[in-house]
Amino acid sequence: MTFRPREKGVAAVEFAIVLIPLLVIVTGITEFGRAMYYYDTLAKSARDGARLMSTQTPADINYASLKNQAACTAVYGNRTCSGTPLLPGLTTAMVSICDRSNCPATHANVSTGNGVINLVTLTIGGPNSPYMFQSMAPFSPALFGVGSFNFGPIAVTMRQIL
């Protein structure tokens, strides 16, 4: 008669041992994907705000309100600052706009091969008001050493009409 060793529950024990590293990997991939989504949303909203600013010049009548509308477009996705922000924690205070009226040394009458142009730059974040990414996984700081981090300044520069 052959004696078989007891193997009941071995698969459950092996699964329990593998489950913890598997969950850590899946959580890391998910958080990395969320961070990439947030960065992409910030870049697209900065582009939309800069595109709005590039359609007008500082000589236009409603240019001051256009700066507010561009900041609202970058944060809320619309010109009226209505609704919820595109990302949690994003505010219009994090948006800065540089054009020929407030940055004349770098944005007014920039020479090109075919003449001169004016530039407009919309920046989200920066050293004074960075956008902070918060992790959804409460245990991620202990595992990865990262619970939240600042995105660097996300800036878009476009040619402004003359």
Task: Note down, in words, how this protein is organized.
With 162 residues, the protein is of the alpha+beta class. It has one domain. It has four helices and six strands, in the order H-H-E-H-E-E-E-H-E-E. The protein has helices at residues 10-53, 63-76, 104-107, 140-144, and strands at 95-98, 110-112, 115-124, 131-134, 148-151, 154-160. Strands 1, 2, 3 and 6 form a four-stranded antiparallel β-sheet that branches. A two-stranded antiparallel sheet has the order 4-5. The model has no long low-confidence stretch (mean pLDDT 85).
Radius of gyration: 25 Å
Give the percentage of residues in beta strands.
15-25%
Largest sheet: 4 strands, antiparallel
Helix content: 40-55%
Q: Measure the end-to-end span.
A: 97 Å
The number of helical segments is: 4
Q: Uncertain segments of ≥5 residues (pLDDT<50)? A: none
| Shape annotation | elongated
* Mean pLDDT rating: 85
Query: What's the number of structural domains?
Result: 1
User: What is the number of E strands?
Assistant: 6
Q: Strand-and-helix sequence, N→C?
A: HHEHEEEHEE
Gist?
By secondary structure, the chain is of the alpha+beta class.
Topology at a glance:
Elements: H1 10-53, H2 63-76, E1 95-98, H3 104-107, E2 110-112, E3 115-124, E4 131-134, H4 140-144, E5 148-151, E6 154-160
Antiparallel strand pairs: 1-3, 2-3, 3-6, 4-5
Helix pairs in contact: 1-2
